[in-house]
Design brief:
It contains 5 helices and no strands. It is mainly α. It has one domain (39-189). The protein is elongated.
């Protein structure tokens, strides 16, 4: 191989290696940028979800009494306002996280709206005074489910993106939600057993 050919080969190899190194550097830079965007998104979303979990726990703790008293008609009445569907902060780079996780997060507002529609139906057409038992039960069930789903997402994102756990005192929203869900399921099982044991008229 003469010197001219050798020089040309070396030049081509140098160009290829240089292009590869440039591509590698850009890929590494993009990966770091995406990781930063993902962690920023995770922190913002977890803070939003933490508040939503607390709101759901307040809803399931609502027994319909105001300072231990019924209303002037002797009825139970919701004391805790229903939280609005989740609204995540603007400007987040959703493409920076796993698509399955993104779907679970972005579908939560629709799930909350569907839950509210079911609760409204039970309130209008099923529940009756003075206790509106079916309304409060459906409300506890739906918001326990929503709150526990939101809490599960916070735990997953805290682990994946190295976000510290909340510092909780005596009030633990997740425990309250789990107990409420368990109680609703027990009440429904007991009701079904009573109905099954009742003699047919």
């Amino acid at each position: 191989m003469n010197q001219a050919v050798f020089g040309a080969v070396v030049g081509i190899v140098g160009v290829v290696i240089g292009s590869f190194l440039t591509l590698l550097r850009e890929t590494w830079s993009d990966s770091r940028m995406r990781a930063r965007h993902a962690r920023y998104l995770a922190i913002r979303v977890v803070c939003t979800l933490d508040k939503y979990v607390e709101n759901c726990a307040e809803v399931v703790s609502d027994d319909g009494l105001c300072m231990g008293q019924r209303d002037k008609e002797g009825c139970l009445q919701a004391q805790v306002p229903t939280p609005p569907p989740l609204a995540f902060p603007d400007g987040l780079d959703w493409k920076s996280i796993d698509h399955a996780l993104m779907y679970r997060l972005l579908s939560m507002p629709n799930e909350a709206e569907a839950a509210d529609r079911k609760i409204d139906f039970v309130s209008q057409y099923v529940a009756g005074p003075p206790d509106f038992e079916e309304f409060f039960e459906e409300r506890r069930d739906k918001y326990a489910t929503l709150g526990l789903a939101a809490f599960a997402l916070t735990q997953e994102m805290r682990t994946k993106y190295d976000i510290p756990q909340q510092t909780l005192g005596e009030w633990n929203p997740a425990e309250r939600l789990a107990k409420a869900k368990e109680q609703v399921e027990k009440d429904r099982r007991d009701r079904m057993q009573r109905l099954a044991a009742s003699p047919l008229l």
